[in-house]
Amino acid sequence: MKRTLFGTVAAGIMIFGTLAAPLPQAANAQSFTLNEPSQTITFSPLQLQNETSAQQAKIAAASQIDSYYQSAHGKSGPALKKALHDIIDDHKQLSYSQVWDALKKTDEDPKNPNNVLLLYSGVSRSKQANGGNVGQWNREHVWAKSHGNFGTSQGPGTDLHHLRATDVQTNSTRGNLDFDLGGNEYKGAPGNFYDSDSFEPHSRVKGDVARMLFYMAVRYEGDDRFPDLELNDKVNNGSAPLHGKMSVLLKWHKQDPVDQIERNRNEIIYQTYQNNRNPFIDHPEWASEIWE
User: Fold this and answer.
1) Which of 142, 165, 235, 249 has the fewest CB atoms nearer than 10 Å to its CB?
2) In the chain, what percentage of residues exceed pLDDT 70?
3) What contacts 24+ positions apart, CB below 8 Å, involve 177-183?
């Protein structure tokens, strides 16, 4: 006899449909089948248990993140920017040499644990191929380190939230250019463009780049020994502690939403290395609330 089921089968899991067989009561029952209008789904008790555990883990993680940003909720504009700065500053700082090993974890290729994914090209390359020669990968400062002249010193120079594994030659081509649209396609990494005053990354990571710069502009406010880093709507910023182009970055942020690679990276940096988070990965809407 079929029975219509509307409700909770296991904690946190809502199922709506018609049972093709009675719901098993015993813990060791084999399975039950749910007939929906478009498909038939068979569940085992173990699957339900695993699904419940996964849902509970997600709820716990979301609660932890919500608590982390508690003092920022309900704010906007300069007040939100200050609240976020107060939350994410004073993070644990790495040395520049420690960044090598950290990037092997944060930028690990999810399909090949022996490799890292390079930022602009998307190439998967051996973790052991790090260095400064052609065919190797190195440490790209997405907020160009000459924009504020902080170099590779602890603080902005070693902050993992904007340091990424990047092909040596592609890194050299990007140099310290601001970010903007257009230019010539870089043959070493198709889909990336550059001209005399700007660099346009591949559409796959445009949002990633924007969110890294948003983080830097909030984390470094000049209230410690580091420069006050700010975004502006210009290029050719030179050695000033400024980075552009703000209007373009906001568009990229919307066009290329946060993905799971960014979320995983944010979590690794928080849990393993710096004990701080990128707010614009956790709450993308805050970019507009601060800068628009």
Assistant:
1) 235
2) 80
3) 177/144, 177/235, 178/144, 178/234, 178/235, 178/236, 178/237, 178/243, 178/244, 178/245, 179/209, 179/210, 179/213, 179/243, 179/244, 179/245, 179/248, 179/249, 179/252, 180/235, 180/244, 180/245, 180/248, 181/248
